[in-house]
Design goal:
CATH superfamily of one domain in chain A: MetI-like
Number of strands of chain B: 24
Structural class of chain A: mainly alpha
Distance between the termini of chain B: 22 Å
Number of helices of chain A: 14
Oligomer: heterodimer
Strand content of chain B: 15-25%
Strand content of chain A: under 5%
Helix content of chain B: 25-40%
Shape of chain B: globular
Strand order of the largest sheet of chain B: 10-11-12-1-13-22-14
Distance between the termini of chain A: 11 Å
CATH topology of one domain in chain A: MetI-like fold
CATH class of one domain in chain A: Mainly Alpha
Largest interface: A-B, 58 and 62 residues
Amino acid sequence: MNFILRRLGFYLVAAWASLTLNFFLPRFMPGDPATALFARMQGRIQAEQIQTMREAYGVSDDPLWQQYGAYLVNIFRGDFGVSISYFPTAVFDVVRSGFVWTIVLVGVSLVLSVLIGNILGVMGAWKRNGFVDSVLPPLLMFVGSFPFFFLASVALFFLSFEWGWFPLRHAYTDGLAPAWSWEFIRSVLYHLVLPAATSIVVAIGGWMLGMRNTMISTLAEDYVTMAEAKGLSQRRVMFNYAARNALLPNLTAFGMALGFVISGNLLVEIVFAYPGLGYQLLTAVNNLDYPLMQGLFLMITFAVLAANLVVDLLYVRLDPRVRAG
Amino acid sequence: MTRQALQDLVVAFQAGRLTRRQLMQRAAALGISASAVGAVVGRSAHVAAAAQGDTSGLVTVATEQVATWTRNFNPFSPDPRWPTTNGIYEPLFVYNTISGEIVPWLATEWAFSADNLTLTFTTRPNVTWHDGKPFTARDVAYTLNLMKQNTALLGASRTALDVVSKVEATNDTTVAVTFSEVYTVGLYDIGTQNIVPEHIWSTVADPVNEPNATPIGSGPFGPVPVFQDQYYEVHKNPTYWQEGKPAFEGFRFPAFPTNDAANLATLNGEIDWASNFIPDIEATFVARDPENNHYWFPPTGATVHLYLNTMTPPFDNADVRKAVSMAINREQITTIAMYDYTNPSDSTGLSEAYPNWKNAEAADAEWVTNVADQANVLLDGAGLTRSGDVRQLPDGTPMEYQLNVVTGWSDWVQACEIMSRNLADVGITVTVQPYEYATWFDQLQKGNFTMSIGGSESGATPFNFFRGVMSSQTKEPIGTISALNWHRFSVPEADQLLADFAATSDTAQQQQIANQLQLLYEQHAPAVPLFPGPQWGEFSTLRFEGFPSDENPYAILSCYAPESILVMMEIKPKAAQ
């Protein structure tokens, strides 16, 4: 219990630090939102109208510490303000629209690649030099070492553009009304296949290799030999004795990755024109959209902290040594 | 021959008369590789599907680059969805850049009073808003007064409203705009202002932050039946005051997060109308479907300049600025950096948007031609002597400068690289220095630069352009933000001419003054004009026709131009063949 309390205290301090950084970092960037939009309009707005844009966006000239105070108060009231790059939508609504698709795409591909990668790793280590162990790691590492942008573009070009097997863009068919209908769900799944598959193919190698390597050293442990000597079934030794212990480092990595799910997968979103938080974050940074940046950064840091907390708690469950300490 | 045969085979395959295997066998017999067949089957399958399956009559447009759309149809906001302004809402008149003429729109007539202090518009009768209520001159007065009271509202009239003292509708078809000082060029700012209905906006509590989700305008487009994260449609106004128009059902807008994504869809035949920059367009776009894929990039955008800070010697000397200009090879810049999409600037600095205004006398000065010898003579004459390869200022400092440019604007960066090499030939060392846009723009506006590339102002008359490059009114001291006149140049003659220009409403007289302004520009070379910016525009005639082009240049093709409403009036479904 003491352990958990200490962790909670640490998370509180970390949360405050990230809140403060979220406020100050974006404001150290040169320029302001009005100039950024002016750049995007490239001559469609007269230079003398920039001041009007500043007023419209409510760009504040108050001293920074005053703005910081107002910011903290607003955060506690749950008010993140109005987004500038998605003007005049509230930050909360902008984030909510991207959140769903990020969970669908990044969540699905992360869970699948961790599951498949770990299972393949266990199998590879169990049967050294078997098929899974000798063919898959080099192949997956080969595929995984391509720049993702390139791999995704090639997949999109051939599978969607040239052969027309998959849709070229978006999360569901344009004009289809979102509903809990089979037609809509099928459209979502169909649009999900290519972006998810490319992310999984790229990520899987790392998970597999990590699991395989720790598994091999775990298999050399005395308690595994002991379990085998007791005549336990192969399955039980493989999963309950070896894999459970080998999983710990990968679990930490999974916790980190889970937190970063929220930040979206920018490259997938760009190549497949998939909606999500990654592109929103890019837009926010490019347009110096302080309110949206604050909202997104806050969500990302909190998600990472929350995921770490969950992992900490899971550790308590999986590894009895932590409980003792 | 083989191509036709392959097409026939593919058609038979798609109709189900051939299996994939039979298709491959027959194609092989014709000597066509499997991958070629695959490519044709794939591509023509979706192009055919897109063309045939599409009976909606909707024109697909690629406008902004975003991943998700925000439902904002507020014409006063900085970045509303297309076509909120000049589409859903309409101006009093439309200025046609190509013909140089004003097309009456919600106003039928306008005139200045004898003292040029009052501008009276006569509005069009029998125009109704989308909700059926009649449009009157009172709506015009309301819109202008609303903008005058609330300075955070954006619109074409913003720049003129500072000198407008009163706007009043004297009856349902007449509105009088009173100026506090004579400013006749304000006609264009006020005339192109989009008008909103008083009965709707008078109930809006906060017009700045109003998303205006269901816009009620008077324009050719209105209903928004579908609005999703990545897709929306805007349909035509069935009761538009121009009978029989528009001739198509409406627009649809899929979201494209990047230029690449938009270009892929354009190449795939899904886009009917776009305004993207496409590199090497003949090979990448036109060649894919020469019959249907077209583009038109008229050089009518703002002129791109090399700005030399005239507060920094030796660039306060016109001869030195002209010498720099002579050292530059503009042909090389337009060919290499701009893919031949534009042409070198002449010595008036004006783009091709002012055919009725250009002064031929001022256009062909020697200083816009590439004569390095003459440049050397001028530089020697200014006391900038060579020591080795590099020239020196009279006090002995070598002429070594930074040339500021925006990171990632590849055409500008390339143009700067070329200028750097050109200038090395006459003994001036120039290092190209890319900056993030915000930093670059900040230095430009505050005058913290010696050399920088940059755009310029445009508008219906050359007034804005010359006011931006030569007026003392737009000039601020170094360190203070100057929205225009970044190079900080002014001459009293220009101030006088600009004042005269704004004081008369007689076009012939304005043209005469513009001629003198051009001569003044030619004489002083306040900045170094490089090339007029092209206005990107592409279209496909697969489903629709009537777009403007080189052969039929009735208006600018770019959908960002306010006059795109003229194009919307001409687009129609392609006649059945």
